[in-house]
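> agent: user asked for a holo structure of the chain below bound to 2-acetamido-2-deoxy-beta-D-glucopyranose. Plan: (1) validate sequence alphabet, (2) canonicalize SMILES, (3) run complex prediction with ligand conditioning, (4) return tokens. Step 1... ok. Step 2... ok. Step 3 dispatched.
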Amino acid sequence: MFVSKLIVSFQLLGSLSFVLGLVLGLPVIQVGFNDRTISKVEADMLQIAEHSWELGTACEAEAELASPALSVFRASAFPPPTHLNPAITGNSTAMIDIATKADFVYMAPPFIAYYGALAGGAVGADLLQQAYDQCRLYRNYLRDPIGLWRHITLGDGTDETHWGTGNAWAAAGMMRVLQTIRHSEQAQAFQSQQEDLTNWIHEIVSAAWQFQQANGTLLNTIDASPWDSFADSSSTALLAATTYRLATITFDFSLIEFANKAMDVIRRSVDDDGWLQNTVDPETFNTPSLPGEHSPEGQAFVLLLHSAWRDLAEWMVGALPP
Ligand SMILES: *[C@@H]1O[C@H](CO)[C@@H](O)[C@H](O)[C@H]1NC(C)=O
Ligand SMILES: *[C@@H]1O[C@H](CO)[C@@H](O)[C@H](O)[C@H]1NC(C)=O
């Protein structure tokens, strides 16, 4: 953590933890993105994000990237400052217009939990419990025995396939709820809920990586055969981000290799202009983005991956004895 106070570029951070990994036997993490690429990915995201959930995800990505001290992944999250530097808040009013679609677990429970952590007391505890219960109930309905979640069940337009992005939303959403509870003043009273969330996240990411393709990508339908589905870099990026986050809090590095392979294919999938290639069309769910079209959420997921990678690298550097 003390190293984070030094001005180190992300590249240097990556090399440092790479070397430390070799020397100390810590897991070796993948080389990161360079700062110029990340700026382009970010600018592209802001240019094309327009739907409520895209703007909400973009805001979350901005928080983790540019204001990590305010994100729920840091102990400094609560209480947040009462006054923010306007440069930090940016266009975050979009957060108000948050939507609840199949991607529900990423959208609603983290918000409920955050609200609960802010409220504190009995009301706050109630809200934290509700955020947890929403995850639990969604899992009850959507989870299949192999550990992956179906896309949409009950009601109209059901989709029983194990959609990559749906599983990524669920794992990443539960991760935000978990981290919010952990950094709230109620953390002690919510031990069993934290354990459950940790297990449920692990269940999704460990199941998903069993189907990782040779070059590191996941398929849009995670467990389909390659000729029945197609490579999807969006879900690959978000599941890798969640895997890095999980390792940072559990110290279980058994899935890092998969995340590293995913990071490698994502780095190779960002073109010179900062656009993530090989994404699913986020509006159809089941066709690749058309040539020249890009995924706003895919752009955000690259930033979430970069931020998760950076935090793990920082943790590894900070783990050195003083
Ligand atoms: C906020 O939105 C305005 C208008 O769309 C845009 O010009 C500006 O660049 C945005 N600011 C940030 C930080 O994205
Ligand atoms: C990775 O492999 C898949 C096939 O499994 C292919 O469709 C995709 O284009 C490859 N990605 C890169 C960046 O080479």
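> agent: step 4 complete. Summary for user: Strands lie at 218-219, 231-232. The domain at 35-81+95-317 is CATH 1.50.10.10 (Glycosyltransferase).
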